[in-house]
Write a structure and sequence with these properties.
Elements (H helix, E strand, L loop, with lengths): L4 E10 L5 E11 L4 E5 L6 H8 L7 E6 L2 E2 L5 H11 E5 L10 H6 L9 H14 L15 H13 L5 E5 L7 H16 L4 E4 L3 H4 L4 E6 L2 E7 L1
Parallel strand pairs: 3-8, 3-9, 6-7, 7-8
Antiparallel strand pairs: 1-2, 1-4, 4-5, 9-10
The structure holds adenosine-5'-diphosphate (ADP) and magnesium ion (MG).
Magnesium ion binds next to helix 1.
């Protein structure tokens, strides 16, 4: 099966000054249905790797392919189309819109899809049910716990059925019990077919995932499948 995502000899240099080489010769292929953790100490290049994999930033050298398309060949417009259709993002700080309820926040994930409002809403409700928030549909972010907010953000990332979801330190602002629940949610969403890359520096979280890629000083120093 073709990879959802393939990186070949990817190097990323931030020009600075001072110039920082954040990624060096990264080779990585992710197959449909994988759930993997990217681990590494602070400054090892995890967020840079996520930005490059998610087509949020261009590489200095090397190739990034998403669903077999070399993203360097795409125009900015094609790239933003690809991001909104094929990629879902989850961040440490959730990035929910405070004035909107949970359903409307999730429906935001479908705004570029040319769907009617009603259909966006129905899909948002289904996505919230999938992440266990069927009873919080009309709550606003400030009425939700941290773990619930992150579930809303995960529902928003998944609602458009992207090819791959990237999460950058999704449990970074959560207590250990809630982190555990979010890790469990990732595992069950993956069992239902979602392809996901979860960036974390928490060993306990990563240890639950079937594959762990380890970064150090911008290089892949480990890639283990359990
Ligand atoms: N926008 C940027 N400009 C310059 N240097 C950056 C930028 N973003 C990150 N870096 C540097 O690149 C390296 C990797 O950073 P990052 O990918 O954020 O690591 P991590 O997420 O693992 O903490 C660090 O040395 C960091 O200081
Ligand atoms: Mg980071």
């Amino acid at each position: 099966m073709p990879s959802v995502l393939r990186l070949e000899e990817v190097t990323k240099v931030y020009p600075g000054p001072p110039e920082v080489t954040a990624l060096v010769d990264i080779d990585l292929a992710i197959a449909p249905g994988e759930l993997l953790a990217v681990m590494g100490p602070s400054g090892s290049g995890k967020s840079t790797l996520l930005n490059v994999m998610g087509a949020l930033d261009r590489v200095t050298r090397g190739t990034v392919e998403i669903d077999a398309a070399d993203i360097a060949t795409l125009s900015d417009r094609e790239l933003s189309g690809l991001r909104s259709h094929k990629i879902g993002f989850v961040f440490q700080d959730f990035f929910l819109i405070e004035g909107l309820d949970a359903t409307a926040n999730v429906a935001e994930g479908l705004v570029y899809r040319g769907m009617r409002r009603r259909e966006r809403r129905d899909r948002a409700v289904a996505a919230l049910e999938r992440v266990g928030l069927g009873r919080r549909l009309t709550h606003r972010p400030n009425q939700l716990s941290g773990g619930e907010r992150q579930r809303v953000a995960i529902a928003r990332a998944l609602v458009g059925e992207p090819s791959i979801v990237f999460a950058d330190e999704p449990t970074g602002n959560l207590d250990s019990q809630t982190s555990e629940e979010i890790a469990h949610l990732f595992t069950s969403l993956n069992a239902e077919g979602a392809t996901m890359v979860v960036i974390t520096h928490e060993h306990d979280l990563a240890a639950r995932f079937p594959r762990i890629v380890e970064l150090q000083d911008g290089r892949v120093v480990g890639d283990r499948v359990r």
